[in-house]
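debug: dumping io for the single-chain case to check the tokenizer round-trip. Nothing else runs in this session.
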Amino acid sequence: MEYLNLVPPMGGGTFIVNQRERIVRSYIRKHYDEWLTAAEKVHIWFLRLVTSLLTMDLWLLSLSGIGSVYLFLTGGLTVFGGVILVLFLICYGSLLLLLVWMCVLCRRLRIAKRILIWTFIWIPVVHFGLALYVRGLAKQEIDHTLYKISLDHVRVENQICSTRYPLLLVHGVGFRDFHYFNYWGRIPRELVRNGARVYYGHQEAWGTVEGNGEILKEKILEIVKETGCKKVNIIAHSKGGLDARYVISGLHMAPYVASLTTINTPHRGSMLVEFLKNLPDGIYRGICKRIDTYFGKLGDKNPDAYNASYQLSCAYAKEFNKRYPDAEGTYYQSFASLMKHGFSSKLLCIPYWILKALDAPNDGLVTPESAEWTNFQGVITNRYLKGISHGDMIDLTREDYRGFDVLEFYIQLAARLKDMDF
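debug: decoded output
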């Protein structure tokens, strides 16, 4: 086995790196997308097979059921009628089995829906309607996945996301850029597949705007030095947009930032924070202290949930906007999203209802009016009942929704930045 000895320039011992392991890792990274696509094709093949069997079973179940009733009413229990009845029972059992498998294979079914289906699957007649519903979702998933695979094959060659400057993804409050639990879900991998160079902000989950701004400044300078590019394109979600605006205007980093795209950022604050400010200060500080302790263990060096959360208030936003206006030389654009009702998101249902009562319809945390900023590109939603939540805009649940493809949204966003020579 071959080894490569690396001696750090400042001393500190010799690091032994397994060269063969590095080659294997490089090979895996290179072919990961090919393997993932192959796995997707296998999954779709099984899903199509089970869907076809379910369709056939539904027809046989209907015909054998009608035939059994007809023969029983007209001719009594003949041998032929018994055969039809046995066929009906076999089809009935097969339907239950296939429905269970469909619930396992169909990724468009959430856990709650799967539990409901498994609960009511044993009720006669009801299971027939459940089968039609699940089959419809499976067909949508099959069509969407096959279209995406064919589209990806064409676009990967064109590298439509290969922007002039690297992309810096800046997360929102309450999260960190973990390696195995990515804040941005499947988005970074899809961007890289299509030619983008992606970096992360790595600012703190509960850091203040000023503290996170300093971290982002160092990260931008690091990227510029590493890549040789003069600037970066920042894509920021939620409070990350305020952190990014501060680093551009407050820390005078505009010469290093080609563009800033904010998504669901509370540029004008949130009435939710104004609502929380009504809590007794001692109780609120106690809650924030617990948050600081927890996120300190997760990596935050200077967690300050008390001040970081208050920086999302309407009063702070008003002062912030006056103090840090848009900087010349940097292109700004903003997006918002909108939930249709509180049940659109299990995680954000309560804050949605509170914010709607206090202010207006929202994405679960931010209203479109607050998210609207320079070069506003519109409100992201769909024509279905669910709408698009604050978390959906960063692929939080790793699910595909009807009427909105979050991966396609970011691909088109990067492609537009490329067209603008950013």
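debug: round-trip ok. The first helix runs from residue 19 to 74.
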